[in-house]
TrEMBL record:
Domain of life, per lineage: Eukaryota
Gene symbol of the encoding locus: B7P43_G01287
UniProt source species: Nephila pilipes (Giant wood spider)
Bias type Basic and acidic residues, positions: 157-174, 181-193
Residues in the signal sequence: none
Renumbered residue ranges of the record's region Disordered: 129-207
GO MF annotations in UniProt: nucleic acid binding
InterPro entries the record matches: RNaseH_sf, Transposase-MT_Hybrid
Protein name: HTH_48 domain-containing protein
Length: 207
């Protein structure tokens, strides 16, 4: 606590205040982080963990800051980059997955030839995502890019192809100019040799 705050509290107690607890203030009561909204947010997240803070705020009818405060402070939840199915399933889907696994195990135990009809392999089903979406969800950043270089198309595949094409065209133009210069230089030397004659090199050479 700073010196200014200490003086302020000293004056308050000097004026007759006896408690350091926060007093009730007049005005509109806080309604965004109510128990009902906290419960709605929890149900939405448990139903679909891929929801963003913006989507939750629109669904519940509160601001984005209030939805973020409910997730972090009331529900103690954090955003994670979860792409695999086991982390995205709802509790009901996980229960169904458990029941199906038990049914398959019972069928394999009762039917000796059941495993001969199953084709398995290494496979991972991953929900569609991109690096941009992961960064946006993890950091809570807006969808719109703020970097002017990104808005101009720097770093995208189209911009790389365009820059490669421009660089290739510039390289071809330089090669053409060099070829013309070399051809003209050879012709100039040929004219000088024809003027001086064989065995008589020119005494003045221009750069």
């Amino acid at each position: 606590m700073g010196v200014t705050q200490i003086k302020e509290w000293f004056n308050r107690f000097k004026d007759g205040r006896t408690s350091a607890e926060r007093k009730q203030r007049c005005g509109r009561p806080q309604t965004a982080r109510s128990a009902a909204n906290v419960k709605r947010v929890r149900n939405l997240v448990m139903a679909d963990r891929r929801l963003t803070v913006r989507e939750i705020a629109e669904e519940v009818g509160v601001s984005k800051d209030s939805a973020h405060a409910i997730l972090r402070e009331d529900l103690n939840m954090n955003r994670v980059a979860a792409k695999f199915v086991s982390k995205l399933l709802s509790p009901e889907q996980k229960d169904l997955r458990f029941d199906v696994a038990h049914d398959l195990l019972d069928t394999a135990n009762t039917d000796p030839g059941f495993l001969n009809t199953v084709i398995n392999g290494d496979e991972s089903w991953v929900f569609q995502s991109s690096r941009k979406e992961e960064i946006s969800q993890n950091t809570g950043r807006e969808e719109e890019e703020t970097d002017p270089r990104r808005r101009a198309g720097y770093g995208t595949e189209d911009s790389k192809t365009a820059r490669h094409s421009k660089g290739k065209e510039a390289s071809e133009r330089r090669q053409v100019r060099r070829g013309r210069f070399s051809r003209e230089l050879l012709r100039e030397r040929e004219r000088r040799c024809s003027k001086t004659g064989p065995g008589r090199p020119s005494t003045s050479v221009k750069a």
